[in-house]
C-alpha cells in the first residue's frame, strides 16, 4: 500500500509561517488510543528542507539516506518496513521496478510505502540540484509496521 500527499494539498491546514509540518505519524491522532510509535516531519530552513524522524527506539529502527547529484537507483524495502520518501529540492521520479506505476514528487511531497512483501522502487532525480530523503522504518518487536492515512 502507498500514500502520496502533495505539499500544496495541506496549504489551508498548516499555518503559513509554521516552521515544520507533520508528514505522517503512527498513530495519526491521539483519539485512536494506540501507543505512539513514530512521526515524520518536514522542516524548512533558510538552507533548505529536511525530514525529521522521531521514533520510539524500542519499537522502530530508523535509517535515513539523502540522495542528490542526479542520483538514479533502486531502494529496497523489506516486508513489514515502511519507506518515507520526500523531495527536498527539485523533482524525483518514483517507480515500481516490476510494476506499471510511477509518480513525480515535487518539493515537500511525501510518498509512504508499506506492505507485507519485499519491494523495490526506482528513484530518479531530474537534475543534479535535486535532493530526496529516503527513510526506512523497521519494526523491532512486530512483524510489520502500520499507519492510518
Secondary-structure map:
Blueprint: E1 2-5, E2 20-26, E3 38-45, E4 48-55, E5 60-67, E6 72-77, E7 82-89, E8 92-96, E9 102-105, E10 110-114, E11 119-125, E12 131-139
Antiparallel strand pairs: 1-10, 2-3, 3-4, 5-12, 6-11, 7-10, 7-12, 8-9, 8-11
Protein name: HutD family protein
Organism: Glutamicibacter soli
What can you tell me about this protein's structure?
The chain is an all-beta fold and 149 residues long. The chain has a single domain, classed as Jelly Rolls (Sandwich), CATH 2.60.120.10. The protein has no helices and 12 strands. The termini are close together. This is HutD family protein.
CATH topology: Jelly Rolls
Distance between the termini: 10 Å
Structural class: mainly beta
- Strand order across the largest sheet: 1-10-7-12-5
Helix content: under 10%
Radius of gyration: 15 Å
**What is the succession of H and E elements?**
EEEEEEEEEEEE
Protein name: HutD family protein
Descriptive tags:
Jelly Rolls; mainly beta; four-stranded antiparallel β-sheet; 12 strands; five-stranded antiparallel β-sheet; globular; HutD family protein; 149 residues
In brief, what are we looking at here?
The chain has 149 residues and is an all-beta fold.
Amino acid at each position: 500500500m502507498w500514500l502520496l500527499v502533495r505539499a500544496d494539498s495541506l496549504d489551508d491546514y498548516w499555518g503559513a509561517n509554521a516552521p515544520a509540518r507533520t508528514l505522517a505519524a503512527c498513530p495519526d491522532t491521539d483519539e485512536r488510543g494506540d501507543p505512539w510509535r513514530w512521526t515524520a516531519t518536514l522542516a524548512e530552513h533558510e538552507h533548505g528542507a529536511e525530514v525529521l524522524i522521531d521514533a520510539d527506539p524500542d519499537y522502530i529502527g530508523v535509517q535515513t539516506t539523502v540522495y542528490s547529484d542526479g542520483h538514479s537507483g533502486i531502494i529496497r524495502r523489506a516486508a513489514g518496513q515502511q519507506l518515507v520518501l520526500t523531495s527536498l529540492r527539485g523533482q524525483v521520479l518514483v517507480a515500481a521496478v516490476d510494476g506499471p506505476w510511477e509518480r513525480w514528487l515535487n518539493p515537500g511531497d511525501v510518498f509512504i510505502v508499506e506492505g507485507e512483501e519485499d519491494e523495490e522502487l526506482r528513484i530518479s532525480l531530474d537534475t543534479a540540484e535535486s535532493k530526496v530523503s529516503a527513510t526506512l522504518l523497521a519494526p523491532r518487536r512486530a512483524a510489520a509496521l502500520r499507519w492510518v492515512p
